[in-house]
Amino acid sequence: MASGNAIRGSRVGAGPMGEAERGDSAPRFWISYWCANGHETRPSFAEDGSVTAPDFWDCPRCGYPAGQDREAPPSPPRNEPYKTHLAYVRERRTEADGEAILAEALDKLRATGRPY
User: 20 to 30 Å CA-CA from 67: which of 26, 30, 57, 78?
Assistant: First the structure.
């Protein structure tokens, strides 16, 4: 049994396909970029004179930065491991500083007379 949808397979606003309906596309130029894994990416840019291609492009396959020099691609970024709050505190303070801060806090707490 046929459904009542006569325009099945189309979408609202869809028109005829082809260059005649959309107009001519702008002239393009392509530049090759290579990442550290050897992947080549070739994005296209409009040739209108005001467009300058960027020096670096993100590789869509691995996410590394890609450059225009195939023999010397940019190095991948170095990822820092996740640090806890305690790790950042230990970078800023020495063990002696921590002991002094703890002793000062305990002295204040003992001065109030409240049990901890």
Answer: 26
* Separation between Cα atoms, residue 99 and residue 82, nearest integer Å: 26
For residue 77, which of 91, 88, 62 has the smallest C-alpha distance? 62
Contact 35, 64 (CB under 8 A): yes
C-alpha to C-alpha distance for 101 and 103, rounded to whole angstroms: 5
Query: Closest Cα partner for 67 from 30, 32, 93, 43?
Result: 32
Phi-psi region of 113 (alpha: psi -120 to 50; beta: other; left: phi over 0): left
CB distance 35 to 71 below 8 Å: no
Tens-place pLDDT, residues 29-82: 999 999 999 999 999 998 887 888 899 999 999 999 999 999 999 998 888 889
Q: Using one digit for the tens of pLDDT, what is the confidence trace for 87-96?
A: 998 899 999 9
